Each structure stands twice: as C-alpha cells, then as structure tokens.
C-alpha cells in the first residue's frame, strides 16, 4: 500500500529534519518536541498498516530504527523525558498493531539502546561543559587575585615613594644643619615625620582638608594618631568627602588632649574618633561615622 507508506516516510523525513536542522541551539522548541512524539506513534502506525505486518517483516520495519534515531537526537539535546516517552510510545504502537512477532523482529531493543547511549553521551558532555566552566571561573578568579595583588603592591610602592619624596627635604635640612637642629626646626621635623607615618599607615585618610586639620592639631600640641584598618575604600566619593569634612571640623574644635582616628571594616560604622581632654567640655569626644 504505497500511499500510507509514502506518507509515513515523508513524515519521518520532516521530523528528522526538524530535530536536527531546525535550530543550532541545543534545546528544541516545545512544538517540535510534541510533533516528534506524535510522529513516534503515527509513523509506525502508517508503515505497519502499509505492509499489513502480521508476520516476520524485519526488513520492512526501518521506521523503528528511524524513530529511535529521532528519539536519540532528543536525548542528546537534553530532552530526556520526551525521548523515552516517544520510544515507549513507539514500542506500544508496534506491539499493538504488529503483534509479538513483529515487535521481536523489528529491532526495538536497538532503539532503546540507542536512546540510552545518546542520553549517556549528553550527560557526559554536560559534565564536561560544567567542568570547563568551573575551570574557567577558577582561572578568572586566580587572574583577578593576581591583578589585585599587583595593584596592591603597586599602591604600596607608590605610597613609599611619596613618603620618600616627602622625607627628602627633611633629610637635606638635617644634612645642612649637620645635626645641629634648632627647637623650631625640630618641631617641624617631628610634624613632618608624623605626616609621613600617616601616608604609610593611614592611606585612606589622605584627604587635603583632613591632612591640613591633622597638621594644625599637631601644631597646637595635640597628639593625633591616625590608623586605616579598612572600610574607607568601600565608600562612594561623596560619602568620603562628607566623612573627611566632619573629621576635619571636629579636629579644628579640639584645643588640647589626644585624638585617635581609626577606620574599621565589617562594622556598621566606618570611622571612629576618640578625643580625651577636650577643652570644650570635661567629657571625652567619641564619634562613629
């Protein structure tokens, strides 16, 4: 019966083309999956009807391997449930319309094995892709850490160079005076030395207004200790500006005593300021900003 046989063959060619060539993406649209599942029933039905299979027609049951190949393609494209559903539907159709003998001689076992092998390869490929992605993420993380370390080292070297540049005039002054430093020069040297220490251990506080306020406080005889333990780099530019402005204003209002300014990471505040012996009141000043 050529007409149903030709219809089954054309339907198989169409579903094979759609499952392999419709898209280059791995997964298929649901419409094509439904069409493939429908073909898994219709193609065997048409071909068995065309050959009137009631005996041994092992050379005429090409459609079992054909539909099994389409289901293997679905399994390869990670549509595992659809692939096994179509294979089982084909097996039920062949058994119901062709009987036990046709079912046993049609190569149904090979179709099941083909789908299983395709699913195994798809799982292996997915695992390999995941491993490749994990390795790429690891390499990117390593490269990023390396760059961060390089940037950190470069920043430390720049701060040291700035400190050395700042210390050169002091060293020249000592050389010119041959160690015979006057009290006024000695005070200038001590203030400058404190500023150099701030450049090294308080890099986050190198704001022009704040540095000037610290220098002014030290000139008035106030002991100022500045320490950067992290957290300032996480602030936005405007937040830093407001923070430094508040610190500078507070320092300008302190006349005597000792002041400790310290940044901290991982807390609800970024910078703390503690002043003991303030001239404005008998109480100590303690700020968390």
Helices and strands, with pairings:
Layout: H1 2-21, H2 30-51, H3 62-76, H4 80-105, H5 108-177, H6 183-201, H7 208-219, E1 223-229, H8 237-253, E2 258-264, E3 271-276, E4 285-288
Parallel strand pairs: 1-2
Antiparallel strand pairs: 2-3, 3-4
Helix pairs in contact: 1-2, 1-3, 2-3, 2-4, 3-4, 3-5, 4-5, 5-6, 7-8
Descriptive overview:
This protein is α+β, with helices and mostly antiparallel strands and 289 residues long. The protein has helices at 2-21, 30-51, 62-76, 80-105, 108-177, 183-201, 208-219, 237-253; strands at 223-229, 258-264, 271-276, 285-288. Strands 1-2-3-4 form a 4-stranded mixed beta sheet, with helices on one face. Helix 2 runs antiparallel to helix 3 (62-76) and helix 4 runs antiparallel to helix 5. The longest helix has 70 residues, at 108-177. It is rod-shaped, with a radius of gyration of 41 Å. The chain starts with a helix and ends with a strand.
């Amino acid at each position: 019966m050529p007409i149903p046989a030709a219809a089954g063959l054309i339907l198989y060619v169409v579903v094979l083309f759609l499952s392999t060539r419709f898209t280059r993406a791995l997964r298929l649209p649901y419409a094509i999956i439904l069409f493939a599942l429908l073909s898994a029933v219709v193609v065997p039905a048409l071909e068995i009807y065309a050959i009137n299979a009631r005996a041994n027609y092992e050379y005429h049951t090409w459609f079992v391997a054909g539909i099994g190949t389409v289901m293997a393609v679905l399994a390869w494209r990670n549509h595992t449930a659809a692939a096994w559903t179509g294979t089982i539907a084909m097996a039920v159709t062949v058994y119901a319309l062709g009987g036990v003998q046709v079912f046993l001689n049609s190569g149904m076992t090979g179709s099941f094995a083909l789908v299983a092998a395709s699913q195994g390869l798809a799982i292996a490929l997915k695992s390999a892709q995941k491993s490749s992605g994990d390795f790429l993420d690891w390499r990117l993380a390593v490269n990023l850490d390396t760059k961060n370390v390089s940037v950190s080292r470069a920043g430390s070297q720049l701060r040291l160079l700035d400190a050395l540049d700042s210390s050169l005039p002091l060293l020249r002054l000592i050389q010119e005076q041959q160690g015979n430093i006057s009290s006024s020069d000695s005070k200038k040297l001590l203030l400058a030395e404190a500023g150099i220490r701030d450049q090294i251990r308080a890099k986050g506080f190198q704001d022009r207004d704040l540095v000037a306020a610290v220098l002014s406080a030290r000139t008035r005889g106030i002991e100022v200790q500045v320490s950067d333990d992290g957290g300032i780099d996480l602030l936005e530019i405007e937040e830093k500006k407001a923070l430094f402005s508040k610190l500078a204003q507070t320092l300008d209002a302190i006349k005597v005593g000792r002041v400790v300014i310290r940044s901290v990471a991982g807390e609800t505040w970024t910078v703390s300021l503690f002043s003991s012996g303030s001239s404005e009141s008998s109480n100590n000043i303690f700020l968390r900003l």
